[in-house]
Every structure is written in C-alpha cells, then in structure tokens.
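Morning. Coffee machine broken again, so started the prediction first thing and wrote up yesterday's gels while waiting. Chain of 294 residues, entered below exactly as on the submission form.
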Amino acid sequence: MTMAKAMPVKSIADIVKEHDTRIWRVLNHYVHQSRQGADFSTVTEVGIDETSSKRGHNYVSLFVDLKASQVLFVTEGKDASTLERFKTDFEEHHGDPSHIREVCCDMSPAFIKGVEKQFPEAHLTFDKFHVLKVINEAVDEVRRQEQQVRPELKKTRYLWLKNPVNLKANQTATLEALRVKKLNLKTARAYHIRMNFQEFWSQPLPAAEAFLKKWYFWATHSRLVPIKEAAYTMKRHWDGILRWFTSKINNGILEGINSLIQAAKARARGYRTVKNLITMIYLIGGKLEFRLPT
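Came back before lunch.
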C-alpha cells in the first residue's frame, strides 16, 4: 500500500492507542532524517506549483524534480521568498543552482521574480495548463457578461470550456445549436479563438511563433475585452510560452501529486499544522529512503 492510500495518522493513533501528536513527532523525525541524506546534484529540471494548506488563502509551494518525479522541497507561502528558501535547501543537498537549466511554473509574478533572481541561468517555461487557463477564464467572462442579455447562455459554462471530445452527446448538441444558429454570440466568437489557440501546441517549432503572432492579432482585434486582456497576458509571457517547444516540460507531474495531497487532506479532514502537511507531502512524493532501527 502506498503512503498516498494509507489511513490517516489519527486513525493509526486510535489503533495503537497513542496520541496522534506523538506519531507526528516520529514521522517528522524520520522524514527530516531521510531528507538529510538526499542528493540533488543531478537535478536539472524543476517544476514549481502551489497547493492550498487549508481553507482560505493559505498555501505551500512545491518544488519537484521533473525528470525523477520527486518532490525536492516544500515550504509555506507562494511568494518570491519561497525560491530563496528552495535555493538554500537545494545547495544543502549538494545541488548546484547553475545546473538547473529549465524551470516550469505558472505565470505568477512572484515565482517569475524568484526564478530570475535565484536561478538566473535557468530558462522559464510556462505550464501549458495554466496558459490555457488564462484563455478559458476570458471565455467564461465573455459568457458571464453576455448571458445578462442572452438568457440561452445560462447553465452553459462548461460547454465552452471543455474540449469537444469530453462533452456528452446532449452537451455537444446544445453547443452546436448555439454555434450554428444565427445568434452572432460573442461567446461563440471567444470559443473559436480559444479552440484556435489549442492548435498552437501542435505546431512545428519553426512555425510556432508565427502562429502565435497571428493568433495574437486575431485576439487583440476581436472587440472582446476579456479575450484582448488574455492576449496581452500572452504577450507579456511570450518567451516562456514559446520555450515549451524547446524544453517540452509541463507541470502535469505536480498536478498529479497535488491530487494525491488533496485526497490525503480530505481523508485526514485537514492537518493541524502546516508542518504536518509538509511532512505528509514528503511522504507522498519525496521518494524518501528510510533507515529504521532494527
């Protein structure tokens, strides 16, 4: 049984008739001990993402070796200082910051600033999922504004945000009906721009920037304010978006780890402290080697 599927610490405490705080102390001790011997000297590609630590605006940031699918470091917060703490921990584990050639993250100004300051030799790739999320949010904003005068758009949010292959038959029929009717829907125009952007990722490297320039011109001349703003965001992050065609990295690994973390949180009904959450994240994704007493 993997740690991700194991029962919560509180349940274990009840079985062994011990207070859970003592079990957490044992876990914290052995996780810390195991990390002491970690060697990051071969790490060259790092993914960065945040995950919620509790309800509200409380987060921890994860740093993952994209090649080894291993959580390297977890720290509280999601500001630029998290990169400084990661760099310190990285060096303490025989990592050389100059060896990190590729970093993948979302378009968070804090992460960008931190990477540029702490790892100036690394190239930034913006995660494909988060790039598309910017456009999806723009499409949804167009729909929300338009449904005030076009009631037929109510309860159609996911029709415009999902890929056609993921729609049910009745959803596909509804979407097609809205698109083919001579309604001149702004939402339909925004949807076409979104779908066209998705073809960007399948372009050959030499044609990728030319394709993006054409898309940018179309989006900025769409007369759809949310779409125009999304295009301006793409322009501000131009190089990091195009970098994917060279690095071919994304944060899919982190999304998977994040799903395991949130599942563990749900089973445990949350964690009493951030320290306990961080310990559990290392247990889930840190690929730790334990040397337990015999």
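The chain has 14 helices and five strands. Going to sketch it on the whiteboard this afternoon.
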